[in-house]
Inverse folding.
């Protein structure tokens, strides 16, 4: 339900009073209760949505964070266990005259929920805190060579700052785990972890595929015919390479070991120089005369 609008699920607006919220919830929960809709998967999914929405919107602290950070931001901080912590299944459904309570929630949401009236809806004892996730943007060279970065994130209602080390070789989608920086545990349980999802910004010079990197270079027609030398950028310093005579447009020249060592790999990739041949859009009179002469000679 990470992308679902809880207000739309219950059909209320953000200014709904606690009394009206409870009234709407009770009506919907009875309507879609599993005992009234046996073997109906659609009703069961709706029932789960309704209870998750109410568990958040009926809790002032969770509602405030949901309203502040939106559905996506909220779910980066709250796991499903965090959402239902403090939601008293037994008493809610007892008051409504609907059966099931903890047994229904244990069946629908998994065995982490209490059976037999445990207050708060979860088994007693220490509970591990939920994991958090945030996106971190870094430059192409920082991804290739590693860097340190200062980040700011929220743990519940608290804002925290942390200096992190970006290991060399990370790529788009790489995940870095920061142990113990997730949501706080309950009853003496350990804190969850913070996962950083890396987003590498595009580079003006290089592109990347795994450990290999690519750079484009353009040479004039005469150089393609006769051969030339080129200065080519790498991640460390420029290198001068020879372009053989007669090179064809689109040919790639390989510089072995000048790429990136991907995270978890022991070997560096290569750098490939893709050579393009420039064809002028217009010629002056002298250039045109010379090209015509070349044409007469079969070039």
């Amino acid at each position: 339900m990470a992308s679902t609008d809880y207000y739309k699920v219950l059909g209320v607006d953000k200014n709904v009073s606690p009394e009206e919220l409870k009234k709407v919830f009770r009506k919907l929960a009875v309507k879609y209760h599993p005992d009234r809709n046996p073997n109906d998967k659609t009703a069961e999914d709706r029932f789960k949505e309704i209870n998750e929405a109410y568990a958040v919107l009926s809790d002032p602290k969770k509602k405030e964070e949901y309203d502040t950070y939106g559905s996506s931001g909220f779910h980066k901080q709250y796991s499903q266990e965090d959402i239902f912590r403090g939601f008293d299944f037994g008493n809610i459904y007892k008051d409504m005259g609907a059966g099931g309570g903890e047994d229904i929630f244990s069946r629908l949401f998994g065995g982490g929920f209490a059976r037999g009236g445990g207050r708060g809806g979860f088994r007693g004892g220490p509970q591990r805190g939920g994991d958090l996730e945030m996106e971190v943007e870094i430059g192409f060279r920082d991804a290739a060579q590693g860097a340190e970065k200062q980040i700011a994130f929220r743990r519940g209602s608290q804002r925290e700052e942390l200096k992190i080390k970006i290991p060399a070789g990370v790529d788009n989608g790489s995940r870095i785990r920061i142990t113990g920086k997730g949501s706080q545990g309950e009853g003496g349980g350990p804190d969850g972890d913070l996962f950083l999802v890396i987003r590498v910004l595009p580079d003006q010079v290089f592109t990347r595929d795994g450990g290999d990197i690519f750079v484009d270079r353009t040479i004039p027609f005469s150089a393609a015919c006769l051969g030339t030398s080129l200065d080519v950028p790498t991640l460390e310093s420029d290198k001068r390479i020879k372009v053989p005579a007669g090179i064809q447009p689109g040919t790639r020249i390989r510089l072995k070991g000048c790429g990136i060592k991907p995270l978890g790999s022991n070997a560096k990739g290569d750098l490939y120089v893709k050579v393009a041949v420039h064809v002028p859009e217009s010629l002056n009179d002298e250039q045109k005369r010379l090209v015509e002469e070349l044409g007469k000679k079969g070039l």
Q: What stands out?
A: Residues 111-124 have pLDDT under 50 and may be disordered. The longest strand covers residues 147-155. The CA atoms of residues 135 and 197 lie 5 Å apart. The chain has three domains: 6-109, 132-200, 207-281.
